[in-house]
Every structure is written in C-alpha cells, then in structure tokens.
Amino acid sequence: MEEDTGNKGPQKGLTYAEAGVDVTKLEGIKSGIIKGLTYKRTGFGQPMGESGHYAGLIDMGDYALAITTDGVGTKLIIADIMEKWDTVGIDCIAMNVNDLYVMGIEPLAFVDYISIEKPNEELISQVIKGLNEGARQANISIVGGETASLPDIIKGFDLAGTCVGVVEKDKIITGEKVEVGDVIIGFPSNGVHSNGYSLVRKVVQDAGLKYSDPFPYNNNVTIGEELLKPTRIYSEVVGIFKRFNVKGMAHVTGGGLNNLKRITKLGFDFHDPLPVQDVFTFIQEEGGIDDREMYRTFNMGMGYLMITSKDEAGPIVKMTDGKIVGSVVESGCTIRGINLW
User: Fold this and answer.
1) Is residue 322 assigned to a domain?
2) Distance (Å) of CA 237 to CA 127, 152, 303, 314
3) To 5 degrees, how large is the angle CA 2–CA 72–CA 221?
4) Where is the PurM-like C-terminal domain (predicted)?
5) Mean pLDDT of 134-150
6) CA 20 to 30 Å from 302, out of 79, 98, 183, 227?
7) Are residues 78 and 200 in the same domain?
8) Is there a domain that residue 327 lies in?
C-alpha cells in the first residue's frame, strides 16, 4: 500500500472534523440510535439502566452481565502501510476491556470479527498474535470469532470485537457517588492508543512525511512504529476497585477528556496533569492544532482516570504508576489554563 504523502510543511489549524470525524455530529447520531432502539426484554436477562455508558448491563440476579464492543479504527491503515499487524490485536482487546474496567467489571471472554478485502495469511497470523497477547494481558479467553472476505465492501481490513464481563450488581461503578473535592488519579497512556487516527494521518499526509521516516523525538523508531504502539490494557485497576472505594473511572478515548461527561455532571480541575508525550507534541506542531482541539481529541498522555476520596488516593498511587492529577469541582473542565467546557 502506498504511504500518505503531500506537500511538505505543517497545515495550520487542523481539526478532527476537517480530517473527516465530527465528534459533535457523531454524538448526535449515537443519541438517535439509542432513542430508536426501544424494545427491551422483560424478566430474567432484562437490561439494567440506560444505554450510553461504557458498557451495556444485563440483569442476572445477584450479578450483572456486561457487554461492550469496539474496534481499532483507521490505525489499521497505518498497519497496512507498514505491513506490521502484530499489535493491532492488542488494541482491539484493550479498547473493549478498558471500557469494562471503568464500571468496576472484570472481563471474562471475547469474540473477534475480522473482515478483509482478500485473503492474507501473514496479516491474519500477526493479528492473531496480537489478540492472543491482549488476551494474556487482560486475563480473558477468546471463545470465538468470525473472519469474512468482503472484496466488494472492504478496502484493506477491519478488526473489531465484543467482550463480556461480570460484576455483582451492588459493586457496579457508575460515577453517581462522585462529589466535589474528590481526587482524580491519572494513569499514563502508551501514546495515541486507538483514537484520533483520521486526524493523525491527515497531519502526516499534509506535512509530506512518510511513516518510514524517523520519528523526530526518537530516531530509533520510525513515525509509523511510534504511531502503532498498542493501546495500554489497564488490567491492574481490577485489583484496585476490588480493594478500594473507587467512585468513578474513565477510559480516555475518542473525544479526549470529554469522556468524563459519561460519569458525572460535575466539573474537573486538572491542576497537575501527567506530562504530554512527545508523540502529541509532534502531532500538534506538524498539524498546527490548537491546545483545546488536542485535549478534545487525544488522551494527551493520560489514558485512564480514576476518581476516589482524598484518603483512598494515597495508597492507590503508591501501588501503581498513577499520579494525583486533579480534583472534582462544581462545573467545567480546565487543564493547563484551557477551558474544555
């Protein structure tokens, strides 16, 4: 596959919407889908709560069965260009299990779906390698899946999956107990993870760069290798929410810190955020992207957030690589002098 190339030099003021992904419109479409799905099973196995959180919940008596589904997105295009597919399976697992963790749910099993333009044994072999590694990191079983050849629909390939988990109903974490004064703990990301790649690819293309070019901040890796770093699987948080009183969590994916709106209507003051990683500086400088757009699109170095009381935060930080990055306030969201909402 040919690499994205274009005229050399940064294109100032790029936005995610200009790269083809309008998050505001997408949220409107999602809301319409939820409103349109009106039928609900009754009796045993009926749904719990409203749609729109990180995972769907099914009533199983004393327990809730949780289901979430997600894919890797246009990061797969870079994998195709690099002919390096051995990490995207980790991304697929991560995007699903991380969405279960935030509700206090332990993932159990996974099924994958691979759709491909034409058979490619090397591609499939590498994807499976990544899926297996992701399953190991998350301690889950891959119990099934589907591979389809769809030459009239798919260009390249697509990878998605569905994960199920279980939780005692009285231990589900939704964010309803979050209150002003609580502490936010941030956990480092492993780079861009698996969101915002439509904008990332446009930045690389418009700057006239190639994925095989050295990454400016580390000449030991190429731009493509840096961008293909797999999404971190935050499996360590399972032990934390089983031991401590965790009030709310967020997996920072597409939409950046806007993901926090899923758990509470209160606000956030990030007075001591984790360092911005070099890959985000590279994307911002090459694309001329403003600060607010960066924080509303990417994780910016904080891939997972946890909200606890002040008393609980200290012990959690000591046993993890997390750091206290902010606190819960009445309204709004500020970080590095930027008002996000």
Assistant:
1) yes
2) 26, 42, 13, 15
3) 55
4) 179-313
5) 97
6) 79
7) no
8) yes
Give mean pLDDT, residues 278-293.
97
Last residue of a domain, one of 171, 195, 223: 171
CATH number of the CATH domain containing 115: 3.30.1330.10
Q: Which two tokens stand for residue 107?
A: 């993932």
Tens of pLDDT, residues 65-115: 999 999 999 999 999 999 999 999 999 999 999 999 999 999 999 999 999
Instruction: List the domain range (segments joined by +) for residue 200.
Output: 183-339
Q: What is the pTM of this model?
A: 0.90
**pLDDT higher than threshold 50 for residue 7:** no
Closest Cα to residue 132, out of 87, 190, 67, 100?
A: 87
Burial annotation 297-336 (CB, 10 A radius, 16+ → b, else e):
bbbbbbbbbbbbeeebbeebbeebebbbbbbbeeeebbbe
Domain boundary pick from 107, 136, 171 = 171
Looking at the fold, whether 191 and 166 belong to one and the same domain comes out as no
pLDDT computed for residue 31 by the predictor: 66
The whole-angstrom separation of Cα 105 and Cα 100 is 5
Place of tokens 């439509």: 198
Does residue 215 sit in the same domain as residue 308? yes
* Distance, CA of 273 to CA of 330 (rounded, Å): 19
pLDDT digits (tens, 9 = 90+) for 254-274: 889 999 998 999 999 999 999
